[in-house]
Amino acid sequence: MLSEEILKNMQKIVDDCMGEETPACVATCPMHTNVKEYVRLIGEGKGEDAIRVIREKLFLPATLGRICAHPCEKKCKWNEGNSPMAIASLKRYAADNFDQEENWDLTTEPSNGKKVAVIGSGPSGLQAALDLRRGGCAVTVFEKLPVRGGLPRVGIPAYRLPRNILEHEITYLDMLGIDFRLSTEIGKDISMDQLLRDYDSVVVAVGKHQGRVDHSLEHWDAEGIYSAIDFLKEAALTGNVADAGKSVLVIGGGDVSMDCARTAARCRNVEKVTDICLEEDFQAMPASTAEIKGATEEGVKILPSRAIQKIHINENNRVCGVTLCKCVSMFDDQGRFAPSYDMNDTVELVVDTIIFAIGQGVEGDFAKGILEQHPNSTFTCDKLTLQSSTNEKVFCAGDASGESVIVIQAMATGRRAAQSVLRYLKGVSLIEGRELKDTWTYETKLDMPTDWATVSGSRVDMPTTPVASRHKNFSEVTRGFTKEQAEEEATRCRQCECKLCMKECIMLNDFTECPKALFRDYLEKGPTEVDRMIAYSCNECSQCTLKCPHSFDLRENFRALKAEFAEENNGIVPLEALAPSETGQEKECSPEYCTVVNGASKARTVLKKKKTKYVFVPGCTVPAYSPSAVENVTRHLKECLGDENVGAMLQCCGKVSAFMGETSKFNERNKIAIDKLDEMGAEVIITVCPSCFKIFKQTAKNQRVISYWDLMHNLIGIPDRAQGVGVGSDVVFNIHDSCVTRDEPTHHESIRWVLDQMGYTWKEIEQSKGNTRCCGVGGMVCSSDPELYRRVYTRRIGDFNQEHIISYCGSCRGTFETADMDSLHILDLLFSGKTYMADQACKRGYKDEAEMWSRRLETKERLNSFN
To answer: What is the pTM of this model?
Structure first.
């Protein structure tokens, strides 16, 4: 049974692992377009695939590529580098160059016999109609205007959104069989009651076509005064505003005010356009930088911190001028909108046309007595399902729902309304079993640290037409990306995801998509439904933890699982492939292959109570590799620390048992070693094996543990005959640091110091020291999964840039020799007495298991010679 601590660790990973988290651009898009994927495809030159990905969510890609307010860009990771991705521009590139009608998906569900009316052909109404038709409904869209598209068609100027682009994309709905009734006003041509009788459900998707002017001003209703929507609508339908004068004043600081100003500049009679806003400067204005720039380029004069104090009219009741006062603040102490003015700081302007871009409302008279309308003009409805609060057959979308602010959000409400209608028509719950966040912006947990000092590149913006060519026409201003520009911009994408552990760990990719999914399966399904091999495939190198932004400890979970599996099998590892390792461990711990060397010299062995201060523990792999090295280290220690103070113990620490999850066996075998050390009166344990160092640091309560490398570096120095022995060598070494002691920086520095003392040349690699990688042996993967072992050591070999490798772990050295590298243990250099040259490269390890045990016995004999 796993401990509560391990279960909590697993749950924390499930809760907080970012492996499945959505990139901010996707989470922020109300329609959750797969921005990351289509941008990647554009960068790879796969435009056809990119538009296919876009159209999975959006049927207006070319339109949105031009007019979307792109909230995704505001959350782009590149904002930290002050250069967010041009996501909308890339969408436009894909749509303009690769969107083909023959590839449009015309499939729908079989007819369900239901009829649905949609009021309004703006973005929300069109999206609702589309999704309802795909869901099997017969759909009729009623539109008051003679054209389709709602506010994008009559509220966004043609120089931003050419009419043919929008209309072409709407024809997709024609292909699906959706019926459009244009110039049909609900409440006038057809009553709302009639719709409710004739249709099984109604989606109200009317936009904010009701303009506003400031009624607090005297002469607000004079000739020459327009609301923004009325001004833009006339320009959109006729290509001009016939009654516009020569000097136009626009009130407002948002994108709509910029649209009005730039549209006015294109009208035939207009000679001068001025915009005033309450904000103190361009940076404070809510209008986009691009729109402000476009307006100023086209001659619009913007006066910040100004408001109308008085409107002047002539004898014909026509505007002839204004007095402007200064706005000194926009908000009160509580942050509420409450502008205050300096009435003595005034400016006089001569104008004959005023456009108020101060907001719009929803026209709701058509539904009076049937639907309840808020004071803010939107209809009351459930915010989750968008079902009307007063009529269950009616659902609201877009501006009518009170939720939409931008086009992409309007489309998302249209989708949510359609989903609700389909549920309503089936007679099922509108909430139960439904993922509602698929039509809302939400916050992602994905937050990847980035060192922007190491990242190059800056945003590529779409080119625009020369200012002179824009005069008095509504031709499109923004040209769109070339192939080269689009691909340059797309390749800047950070492709935000976590999965750093997956990119590092080979074995995790064999079993799961990410740790979150892995441990969720374990917690939900239980251990019997999870592949046990994953626990026996972990190298226990902790690279996953190092890479993880949250430093999640996966190793302890896998260790616990192995322990649980062994406990269920009477304390013995149940994996057949590891049975020989258990047998070998038993043998390594047996008296036949173990010995103890006391600190006293031969002449003083009668001193039964003599304590041995320093005990050298060579481990298991080094004695099986080089008996002479063990003997030489012992002799060096005795020479430097005193013969009577130094002993040795050839006894396994039990690490292999720990690797296999045999907790009881490990405790039993490790206790043998600890008891011997205590009997010897040892104060300091000296190791050359990284695993022994770590094990004894954990289990030896009465001794301090130090590596031979640190001891040489800090106290005794290297053997005299090793000083400068490497000078003149033609070899350049790479150093492989053991993953077991990656968190022991003194070991790393001491090894390099030893090589420097010997005079050998070495070259550092990127994956070294605390960032080192496992050789593949860790966790006994060499035995449990030899093929994985091969892949791990092959990857590690790729980290090296030299042919000669120095290790200070016997298992690591043997692995690289298996991989046909010239692999030496640092002890080979310390005690050879001669300079190592490239032509001395050879195989040094034992040929077979018999030779391994033979060398182990030889080590025992050499150590016994000190007794």
So the answer is: 0.84
- To the nearest 10°, report the CA torsion of 339, 340, 345, 347: 20
186, amino acid identity: I
d(CA 793, CA 540): 14
Question: Do residues 786 and 818 touch, judged by C-beta distance below 8 A?
Answer: no
pLDDT at 606 over 70: no
Task: Give me the pLDDT at residue 766, please.
Answer: 96
The amino acid at residue 585 is: Q
Q: How far is CA 313 from the centre of its chain?
A: 59
Angle of helix 627-641 relative to helix 849-864, nearest 10 degrees, comes to: 20
Question: Rounded CA gap, 477 and 454, in Å?
Answer: 35
33: helix, strand or coil: coil
Task: Please enumerate in sequence order all residues whose Cβ is within 8 A of that of 569, keeping only pairs 6 or more positions apart, or say none.
Answer: none
Rounded Cα–Cα distance for residues 66 and 412 (Å): 18
Each residue's pLDDT tens digit, 163-198: 999 999 999 999 999 999 999 999 999 999 999 999
Contacts of 336 (CB under 8 A, 6+ apart): none
CB 46 within 8 A of CB 97: no
Q: Which residues are paired to 485 by β-bridges?
A: none
Encoded tokens for 389? 């609060």
Tell me how far apart the alpha carbons of residues 806 and 691 are, in angstroms, rounded to a whole number. Answer: 17
Q: How many residues does the chain have?
A: 867
Strand pairing report for 306-313 and 319-331: antiparallel
563 vs 572: CA distance, rounded Å: 9
Distance CA(310)–CA(858), nearest Å, equals 107
CA dist 64 and 133 (Å) reads 22
Token pair 């003595």 is found at 344
Order across the sheet with 646-650: list the strands.
Answer: 595-597, 646-650, 614-617, 684-687, 704-707
Backbone phi and psi for residue 490, each to the nearest 5 degrees, phi listed first: -65, -35
Contact 864, 597 (CB under 8 A): yes
- CA angle (774 as vertex; 771, 775 as ends), nearest 5: 135
Burial of 488 (0-12, 13-18, 19+ CB in 10 A): middle
